[in-house]
Amino acid sequence: MTISVPVASTQSRLDIEDIRDNLVLFKDGSCCLILQSTAINFSLLSESEQDATIYSYAALLNSLTFSVQIVIKSQKKDISSYLSLLNAQKQTIKNPLLKIQLEKYYQFIQKIVQENEVLDKKFYLVIPFSSLELGISSTLGSAFKKKSASLPFSIDSIIQKAKNSLFPKRDHLISQLTRLGLKARQLTTPELIKLFYQAYNPDSGFVDFPDNAGYGAPLVTAAINLTPPPPEARKEGAHETQSPA
After folding, report:
1. DSSP assignment, residue 116?
2. If you write DSSP's letter for every residue of 158-195 in order, what string do you get?
3. Which phi and psi (to 5°) does residue 86 adopt?
4. Gap between the Cα atoms of 217 and 195, Å rounded
5. Running along the chain, 245 residues long, what does each successive block of 10 average in pLDDT?
6. In whole angstroms, what is the distance from residue 149 CA to residue 30 CA?
7. What's the whole-model pTM score?
């Protein structure tokens, strides 16, 4: 006999169905592709360079035939590893003057961190793939979601159609960003898992995600054995717990 125990999961509250093949798949059948871009300091450019950047950005916007979402993520930067590196360098320097200068620099960095928040800004561009592109009308799609919580098509079919639609848009956007002097690249599956983990757990601290961890899936299952032991094992356990008269 198997005992059916409902196991609540926060993943059931999220809109994300899966992260696969460097794409984010949502529960309604839509997908998205996320690019991470570098940045330029516009205020440090000369007037002619600023004008060229504005014209290039206008050309990028005018060339778009699809929707794009720009996301700027600000996160407190962890520089403990950098401070540890400076501290290790102090131990190896034999020149007393250089050691004094490095000590002053070390204290200067510590003071900045204590008095101000050091933020790390990252820039993302999200290219969406609507579930309407699967050939499902909005009326039929809403009726389907009310009757069933599963995807309208198989995951492999949705991913393949999303790739055919998103990859040309990705290549076009990357080429246009290159004209602005920006470098963009598509986030991989492990990077997407890390991104959404930090987004949904902002107070979790600085969790280390090794690059070679080999994350294959973003979903986790509880290690709970819901199948009771066989009757023979229960009888043996009952005899062992009985105390002698």
Report:
1. S
2. HHHHHHHHHHHHHHHHHHHHHHTT--EEEPPHHHHHHH
3. -65, -40
4. 14
5. 54 84 92 95 92 93 94 84 86 88 90 81 94 69 52 87 95 93 94 88 62 53 49 53 47
6. 14
7. 0.70
